[in-house]
Amino acid sequence: MPVGLFRVCLLVITAIVNHPLFFPKENGTVPENTEEIIQKMKEREESLRLEQLRLEQEIADQEATQKALEKAAVVLEESKEEKVRWDMWTALSMVIFLLIELWRQDFQEGNWQDIGGEEDDMAVLGKAFKGVAFPDKAVLASFYEKRILGTTGDMARMREMVEGFADDLLEALRSVCNRDADMEVEDCMGVGSMYENWRVRKPFVCDLIVPFAPPEPYCFRCQTWCSGDSFPPDEQGYGTIKVCRADEDATGCICDKTKLGEDMLCLLHSQVSSTRPSSEMEDLLCFKNTQYLDADQVMKWFQIAVTKAWNRISHKYEFDLSFSLLDSPGALKIKFKSGKSIAFNLTPVVQYENSDVYFISHFPRSSLAADIPSSTHWFLTFAVYERRFIQLVSKTLPANACHVSCLQILSFLHGKQCSLTGPSGLTNYHLKTVLLHLLQARPSQDWAPEKLEARLQDMLKFLEKCLQEKKLYHFFIGNGKVPAELGFPIIFQGAEPLNLFRPFVLRREVYRKTVDTFHEMLRNMSALINEYTVHIPLAHTNGIRKESP
Fold this sequence. Notes:
GO molecular function: protein kinase inhibitor activity
CATH topology of one domain: Beta Polymerase, domain 2
Membrane topology: Single-pass type I membrane protein
CATH architecture of one domain: 2-Layer Sandwich
Structural class: alpha+beta
Function: Enhances Ca(2+)-mediated inhibition of inositol 1,4,5-triphosphate receptor (ITPR) Ca(2+) release.
Largest sheet: 10 strands, mixed
Order of helices and strands: HHHHHEEHEEEHHHEEEEEHHHHHHH
Shape: elongated
GO cellular component, one term: plasma membrane
Mean pLDDT: 79
Low-confidence stretches: 25-30, 108-112, 114-125, 267-277, 365-369, 535-549
Number of strands: 10
Pfam families: Mab-21_C (PF20266)
Distance between the termini: 142 Å
CATH class of one domain: Alpha Beta
Helix content: 40-55%
């Protein structure tokens, strides 16, 4: 109770003391101070608001700067990643380029179609052989003995007769030509299937090439597609022949290429020697207004010369001689009074430098052959080296090796199928090229006579692979593995490989016809062989299927 009373008294005293009426002088300015305080508070509030706005602006600027820095960092990181990615692609491209270059070098060393004798490589091929009844060894041996072997004697007699007559005809040709103005004709050489002993289908035709050279003081300067100057793809395998004076520089003098002034004189050539009349070059069988040998002019000259030569010696023979083809320089046919005839080709060629490679004026045409670029472009033939290579390899093979037999059987089957369904893009030269590749790839013991069936299958499978890829490369061009004993020119070994199937890429209809004929030949193979093998039963044949041409 006393405590509560004390608290009440203390409260009353405090109230009385703090009442404003007791201190009027001290509290008289309170209203004025209040307005001043309010004004200061407003000013403070305004300064705080401005400070807040300034701080917000600084924060916004810092955030923008931070975002810009983050964006720049992202761009920099992306550029680094892009650079790393680009460097990776650049390195990968370089690796791919090096691999391609290494592969191309292997290509030029002769590995482009080297099957290496591996059976595993051949196992992935031969898709067209599924369901095909392949003749066994007994059937193949009987067929070869009865149908093909008997033609060897006929070929030998025909070669002897044609060569003797050709030598006599060329000797007469030399006698009727002007030795001071006409071309000089050398001795002929036999090339092709008749002289490699694998021709099987009649009529037998001997192919003879006749090298010729210009009269003195002229000479031929040959240029090939692989001699350095760029040739378009359709001119690969061709070359040109320039007729020059023997004392003329190979590149020619500048006075022949530039018009000199009337008061200027070439110190190397006189006015007489530097000017060649157009008629003089035409007499040298050149294309009009050029120094390049013209194949058409050569054909006309050779046909006229052969005609004159035959007129001189025709009284010695009891048969007639005529041209079987007018668009070929020496497609000749001997006609006997009995009605029989013998055909042979006598084709003028130009020797390439000191080798046995020749420029041939008119190459036998086929459905696959492309148009010759011009009459001044001459095709190169390696027929002499092909014959020598077969002879060289034959010395290392077992007795009675089956390599020639394989080519003969395949040539017969293809020719027989073409007679049923019409011609295709394949030629006997393509078949021989396949054999040359396999002869180089397989060891000698693989060509024993008892392995005829296996090697024939290899040739067919290899040919099928080439048709699928549209690639069959020339055996000699770009092949670094040509035996040194042949003395083959290095310039052709180092050249880019020449694809003999390139026309297939450009002519689809010919390619389709060729593939169809090849597959049809495979299906008809047993029937075609058994048809000429009398004592072999025909139980496994279903008849020869024909295709509408």
